[in-house]
Amino acid sequence: MKTVAIIPARGGSQGVPGKNLRPIGGIPLVARAVRACRAARRIDAIFVTTDDAAIAAAARAAGAEIIDRPAELAGHTASSESALLHGLDELATRGIDAEIMVFVQCTSPFIRPQDLDAGVELVTSGAADSAFSGIETYEFLWRDADPESVPGSGAVVGQNHSADYRPRRQDRRPDYRETGAFYVMTVEGFRAAEHRFFGTTRVVPVSELASLEIDTAEELALADAFAGVLDQPSAPNTVGDAIDVDAVITDFDGVHTADTAYVDEQGRESVRVSRSDGMGVSVLRKAGIPFLICSREANPVVTARATKLGVAVVQALTDKRTAVLDWLAETGVDPARTAFVGNDINDLGPMSVVGWPIAVADAHPDVLRAARVILSRRGGEGAVRELCDRVAAAHSAARTVTEEISRSNA
User: Fold this and answer.
1) Is the entire prediction scored with pTM above 0.85?
2) 237-399: which CATH architecture?
3) Of the residues 10, 136, 346, 391, which has the maximum number of CB atoms within 10 A of its CB?
């Protein structure tokens, strides 16, 4: 195992009590950190180190493994480095000898997977020994001239500029401010230095919005307000972009159907589905991509549709999340490389354990907030076909690249 993410998440928090379990956009902070890591392509495994049973449960539900953090390393005076070193020692006892460590903090709720990947690439390529997330700043910084004075009560001196020269923004080089969201480093170098900056250090520039860090109740409320906007893909990303996964799982009612049913006088149900969905599923079957319909209720209509499509089905479920994980284990597909398409709140569980939680256009608001991708089609109106086309597009592109590499090596 080459690259591991370790997320420290202790139970105590002085500024915001229970901070790591506080929901932003309906998703606990610790689960957000896990999801970002799961969606990154260059992270092989994710571990949350915690002393809190509730945090451990939330992290496990989101798809992380747990490291039990001893009480002496979980107090407010304990350093993050001490938790990371303990975590690496614990992983070593499990036979996991990682080369690269990604240190991720729960207090940054809007970490982008592509930024994590960029940091890992800097370190694995040898361009850096350690890296951190940062944002450009052109701010003029000042500090107390007398370090013994009450901050801001006396004379101050410029830190990154000369007081007698005020260049325009376009004439200045930017400084970089740490966001605290994540750090990437070689394990060997970290063990030797016992701190996160050593050797050649590089910055991973991130967006201003992705840099939001939560240390106060006010920042928590601000992040929750932003979540409704930041968690939803922008319009150009909702249609047409490829979805690169190795397996597809869908709910039935509200995804294959419009979440309605026709009932005759004998109480027999029938539903309306999109004929085009069948062609899309057929394309994935020919490409060898496993497909599962996961339904909470047992219904012969679901069985008939799955048979018609030639795909697997599980029904009458009390725990859809566990059913999804069990099927993936049997199929041998990484949850991080799996899409789950849902429409209602009972789909939030399985959506939380896959790398690609996807919502149909008319899904419940909580499902839309939890989705990595929102389809342009409504359930029963071609949503499954849209999904299949976008998954097939990713596999077609990957095949083209492989063929080009083979030709160039010939």
Assistant:
1) no
2) 3-Layer(aba) Sandwich (3.40)
3) 391
